[in-house]
Design goal:
By secondary structure, the protein is α/β, with parallel strands linked by helices. It is built from nine helices and ten strands. Strand 7, helix 6 and strand 8 form a beta-alpha-beta unit. Helix 3 runs parallel beside helix 5. The mean pLDDT is 93.
C-alpha cells in the first residue's frame, strides 16, 4: 500500500531530515511511527502526501508520488492533522464533511450520505449540525476523523491524534482508531496509545530506521528506546 525507497529530504542543504529511508506498509496494516522530537515523523507524512519534494521513490498503491499523480494519490490517503483547528475550516461539521467529497465529484446527496455514515460509525451523529467553534477539543478531534472517513480513503495518516485530550476523549479516539479497517500510519509520542492501536512500529532516529518490528517487541525494549531518547510506555514501566 505504502512504500518508501531510499527517500532523503532536507529543509536546508547539508542538513538532511530523512536519510535513505526505506520501508513498506501492507494493505490493512496498523503501523505506529515513533521517535524523539526532530526524528522526522511529520516529515514522513508530508513527503507521503506530496507536500515536500524528496530524493528516492515514494509509492502509494504502486503509483509513484509525483506532480501528475497527486490528485489520485490524495484520494487514497486521509490525513488527520495534530491540530484539528487547522483541519476543520468550514462553519459546521456537515459542511466540513461534504467539502472533500463534493470537490471530488460526489453529488450533494452522496456527500451527505457519506457524512451520515461516518458520523454514525463513530457514534457522533449529534455533531452533524454543530458549529465547529462550539465543539470541545475531543469532539473536534472525533469530527476531524469523521471528515476523513467521509472521503472513503484507502489509508489513514494520523499525526499525534491523542495530543492534548483529556483521559475520556483520549480513550474514545483510541477506540475509534482500533475500529478502523483501513491501512493506518499513526505518528505519536503517546507510546501507550501506539501499543493499544498498532501491531507494528517504525522507530525513526536521525531520519533513518532504528527499528522496525512488532509493537509489543519494540515498545518493551527499554535499552532501544532509551538509546533513542524515548521511554517505555507507562503501563510497562
Amino acid at each position: 500500500m505504502i512504500e518508501f525507497d531510499n527517500v532523503s529530504f532536507a529543509y536546508e542543504p547539508g542538513r538532511p531530515v530523512l536519510r535513505k529511508l526505506s520501508f513498506r506498509i501492507g494493505d490493512g496494516e496498523a503501523v505506529g511511527l515513533i521517535g524523539a522530537n526532530g526524528a522526522g515523523k511529520s516529515t514522513v507524512m508530508k513527503v507521503l502526501l506530496g507536500l515536500l519534494p524528496c530524493e528516492g521513490r515514494v509509492l502509494v498503491d504502486g503509483a509513484a508520488v509525483k506532480w501528475d499523480t497527486l490528485r489520485e494519490i490524495r484520494r487514497k490517503l486521509g490525513f488527520v492533522l495534530q491540530n484539528s483547528d487547522h483541519q476543520m475550516f468550514m462553519p459546521t461539521v456537515l459542511e466540513d464533511m461534504t467539502f472533500g467529497p463534493l470537490n471530488y465529484g460526489a453529488t450533494r446527496a452522496e456527500a451527505e450520505a457519506r457524512a451520515d455514515a461516518a458520523l454514525a460509525r463513530l457514534g457522533i451523529s449529534e455533531l452533524k449540525r454543530r458549529h465547529n467553534h462550539k465543539l470541545s477539543g475531543g469532539e473536534k478531534r472525533m469530527a476531524a476523523i469523521a471528515t476523513i472517513l467521509a472521503m472513503e480513503p484507502e489509508a489513514i495518516l494520523m499525526d499525534e491524534p491523542t495530543a492534548a485530550l483529556d483521559p475520556r476523549n483520549r480513550r474514545l479516539v483510541i477506540n475509534v482508531i482500533r475500529s478502523l479497517t483501513q491501512t493506518k500510519l499513526v505518528a505519536s509520542h503517546d507510546l501507550d496509545m501506539i501499543l493499544d492501536t498498532c501491531s507494528r512500529v517504525l522507530l525513526l532516529s536521525g531520519g533513518t530506521l532504528a527499528a522496525d518490528g512488532a509493537a509489543e517487541t519494540v515498545l518493551r525494549d527499554r535499552a532501544l528506546l532509551e538509546a533513542h531518547r524515548m521511554e517505555l510506555p507507562l503501563r510497562l514501566q
